[in-house]
Design brief:
globular, 8 helices, mainly alpha, 140 residues
Length: 140
């Protein structure tokens, strides 16, 4: 059972949580751990979203706008990849990422896995389940 299946099971039956949970699973598959989160943070920084990254790193995890996320991740193909992987529309993926990316970046920076300038710290890799539980706990 892959992470996407686990997310679907966790979100099953929760009103409105299914699509966002699917996007959460797709995002976690896409980034794959601290190195992937570090790359995501670097991409956000390079595309002018450094102020958002600083807010999230400080624990201010209010959702960003879908357009700010789309601009921040630039031409990475992440939105289309997650949409294709999950069967969720690209618009729903944008909306979901606007909620999820702040949570993931905040969790990974505050727990010392990634610096806010996008460097993996080499600290112990968080279990996917722990990261997933943290993100879904705030999402659902």
């Amino acid at each position: 059972m892959g992470i996407f299946d686990v997310v679907k099971d966790l979100a099953g039956g929760m009103a409105g949580g299914g699509d966002h949970a699917a996007v959460a699973g797709g995002l976690l598959q896409e980034i794959g751990g601290p190195a992937g989160v570090a790359g995501l943070v670097q991409t956000l920084q390079q595309n002018g979203a450094g102020g958002l990254v600083q807010q999230w790193a400080a624990g201010q995890t209010q959702p960003a706008s879908a357009s700010a996320i789309e601009q921040g991740i630039g031409g990475s193909g992440m939105i289309d990849s997650i949409a294709q992987r999950t069967g969720v529309s690209p618009d729903m993926v944008r909306t979901g990422l606007a909620i999820l990316i702040p949570l993931v970046v905040s969790h990974m920076v505050q727990n010392g896995h990634v610096t806010q300038d996008g460097q993996a710290t080499g600290s112990a890799v968080p279990e996917t389940g722990g990261l997933l539980q943290s993100v879904l706990g705030k999402l659902l």
